[in-house]
Fold this protein.
Amino acid sequence: MSGELLAFYVLAGAAVAGALCVVLPPFGRNPLHAALALLATLACVAGVFVLLSAHLVAVLQVLVYVGAVMVLFTFVVLLLNLRREEFIGARVTPWKVAAVAATAVFAVKTAGAVLAASAGARAADLTAPGLQAYGGIRDVGRELVTTYLFPFELTSVLLLVAILGAVLIARREKGGAA
Amino acid sequence: MTSIPLSHVLALALALFAIGAVGVMTRRNLLVVLMSIELMLNGANVAFLGFARWHGDSLAHAAVFIVMAVAAAEVSVGLALAMALFRHGRTVDVDRATRLKG
């Protein structure tokens, strides 16, 4: 087993374990613990991105998710100061059982299709001409301002709208019942 | 030439997506629901980058960039909604936000 494959297994295993800690009630009862487990998962996924030669995206993952998004989550968890009331009366409802079963069926069917479709797939050779810069800032940046120029500009509008919306929604109403 | 099989990358993406989907459908804490949505989006990103690596085409990296921006926007508005919901009813339990239920 090569070092690359070993690193992938370690990172993928840690990512899935962290994701389970986010979702499973015994671990995720405290939202702060769930946020920290999500942090670990996102950091491991950033490592997987590096293994996939997506260097720029890995850096962005750390900056945007592990940095900004997780700080936001942690701040809100602290601001709300939730009591440990949740899951004291955790109950298994038919709806939840159906949801898990449906997801399991989806996962198994998709896994079957994925295995069939990706059998014998060979990765592109990154030492080939034109691919040395694969995943770097120059390579991805050129795609962003040529092929993806319109969605890229729309992204800035989306972020502006999100900022305004977040401020407006979270603002304390003046003199209101809030 | 990487030694990681494509099917393994896609299995990781599928696992993250499925775990996130279960979290969205079963958890009642709005904050944890938002975190599960982040997991699902990350699963999609892993699949994007896996396919990009196999085709040697970095177009998907730009798509992942846009997915990240959408996720950041979604989480900022979602957390603002969580704060508004909490201020309204002192809870972030989505099962108790039943004002619109007929």
Summary: The mean pLDDT of chain B is 88.
